[in-house]
Amino acid sequence: MWIIAAIICAALAAFVYKYVFRTSGPNPFDIDTRAPLKPLVTQKKEKNKVLKQGFLASKVPEKLDAIVIGSGIGGLGVAVLLAKVGKRVLVLEQHDRGGGCCHTFTEKGFEFDVGIHYIGDLLEHKPFRCMLDQLTNGQLQWEPLDNPFDQVVLGPPENRRTYPIYSGRNRFPDELKKFFPGEEAAIDEYMRLVKKAGHNIWFLGLLKLIPVPLAKFLVYTGLANRLSFFFHMASRSVTEVVNELTKNNDLRAIFSYIFVTYGNMPKDASFSMHSLMVCHYLTGAWYPIGGASEIAYHMIPIIEKAGGAVLVRAPVNRILFNDNKEAIGVSVMKGQEEIHVHAPMVISNAGIFNTYQQLLPKELQAMPAIQKQLGMMKNGAGGLSIFLGLTGTKEDLGLKADNYWIFTEHNMDELVETYLKGNREESAKSVPLLFVASPSAKDPTWEERSPGKSTLSLVSFANYEWFEEWKDDKVTNRGTEYKELKQIFCDSILEVVLSVFPKITRDKVEFIEAGTPITNTHYIGAPKGEIYGADHGTARFSAECNATVRPQTPLKNLYLTGQDVFVCGFAGALAGALTCGSVILNRNLHLDAIALAKKTKRVDTKKLK
């Protein structure tokens, strides 16, 4: 019996090894493509020549190898990977500029980012940094945030407690212990669990790369949960885990605060997903020099060099299929005209719900395999953004290169639940959680580009249903009641900002605007106003869900990329692109990026000697 079991295990290991280490396809990380750094382009007209190339049928390249729907980092990422091995790729974006959540916009002389607030895990020569260097040919530069990079504020104005969050694998827990004497064991155990779960994320990628029958075998035998601590902890909520560690309510809040970065209150959030975010920032946090638009600006030319294009104002209204249910292209709306664009492969970065529910013919939507995937996922929380333009420099306003997480108290589950279940006008008057960041304070080029001005980007949550009645109105004219509701949110949130940042006064506020869930629907195509894609609750991180929702769809030649393939955020969407590229190119690009990171480190080290 033991001999048979050993043979089965050996065969299984060999089979997994074959797919994990497969290298038959072309490698986009074969050579180091970093080029000497070029001067930063600050002229918007020059940047817009790259970022705002409008769709025309005459601009579509001939003999396409692939079409990508959506120019967020998940779409641009896979397009660049394919371009680096000679593929001609067309990226189609419904908005008027490329970049998805990496785009910026300007109002009254203030430039605002919409989704890039800070990125972790960017130490030199680490795989993630190496991958980004290669996807931008070394032209995208990063500025580290201050340390502490986060400030967690708990309680009402009369009893506020502020806890600085430091980066550093040892410094993070060591600093916490200074604030919470007697809780050393709880902090150490939290760190042990976070690191063990977060570092096991590779198994999630494995389930998406190996053949479906093998993935199902690992799932249904329970081996996935036994072999991976990530999946072992995935069904446990953040609240459940941290409440077992300590009875100190403020420490529980500190353990949990980063849930805002993926959108689920702690009692609904998977501890494994939470662990990923904590691990992501253990080595520090960074911001793109020149602003978030630099990301797309340096990726698009690589796509173009291979004969492809990134075209905006190109809303895809359906994916085209032949009689064999194979994807053969897309239909783009140009005014009232449908323009068909054909390619042997279609890759969607539009999200699983848009792709399956909006872009497929009804008969294909009804396929059991499609419905099964949809049944495993649900829409994430609606996002609320406030954009604040201020008169004064960062020194004048007391702004630093860090983030503030402001909560009205430590009982985070209760705060969020009461807020989201409340009457919209009453909830708008008292937003219980708020993320506050200053892009202008983080970017060392800001003062040169926008002297005497500063910005704040604020993020919270809001129910899509609070705004749904205005979803079909013209985006610039949604009526008085809509504007009044937004104003309530703006007023109450501004009060919080003024109380936390004493150097910011009302006379310094030159511009304030709110982006609601239906704003997100219009500009980034989020069906329910979500900013993190599909929901990141415990169900999303079951082994079965991750073995089922993968880059290959049930329809031949149609692939998924981005957040919904892997996890949310910039790094998660890029991991989705890397996983999608691995499947298409038939090689493990994750391992290729690791190999190149090691190689470039050796080369760069020799140059310094």
Automatic annotation (TrEMBL):
SUPFAM superfamilies: FAD/NAD(P)-binding domain
Regions that span the bilayer: 66-83, 201-223
Main location: endoplasmic reticulum
Entry annotated with the keyword Disulfide bond: no
Mode of membrane association: Peripheral membrane protein
Keywords: Endoplasmic reticulum, FAD, Flavoprotein, Lipid metabolism, Membrane, NAD, NADP, Oxidoreductase, Signal, Transmembrane, Transmembrane helix
Catalytic activity: all-trans-13,14-dihydroretinol + A = all-trans-retinol + AH2
Co-factor(s): NADP(+); NAD(+); FAD
Location of the protein in the cell: Endoplasmic reticulum membrane
E.C. code: 1.3.99.23
Gene3D superfamilies documented for this protein: FAD/NAD(P)-binding domain
GO CC terms of this entry: endoplasmic reticulum membrane
InterPro entries for this protein: FAD/NAD-bd_sf, Retinol_saturase
Single GO MF annotation: all-trans-retinol 13,14-reductase activity
Top EC class of this enzyme: oxidoreductase
PANTHER family referenced in this protein's UniProt entry, alphabetically: ALL-TRANS-RETINOL 13,14-REDUCTASE, BLR7054 PROTEIN
Stated family: Belongs to the carotenoid/retinoid oxidoreductase family. CrtISO subfamily.
This protein's name: All-trans-retinol 13,14-reductase
Natural source organism: Hucho hucho (huchen)
Organismal lineage: Eukaryota, Metazoa, Chordata, Craniata, Vertebrata
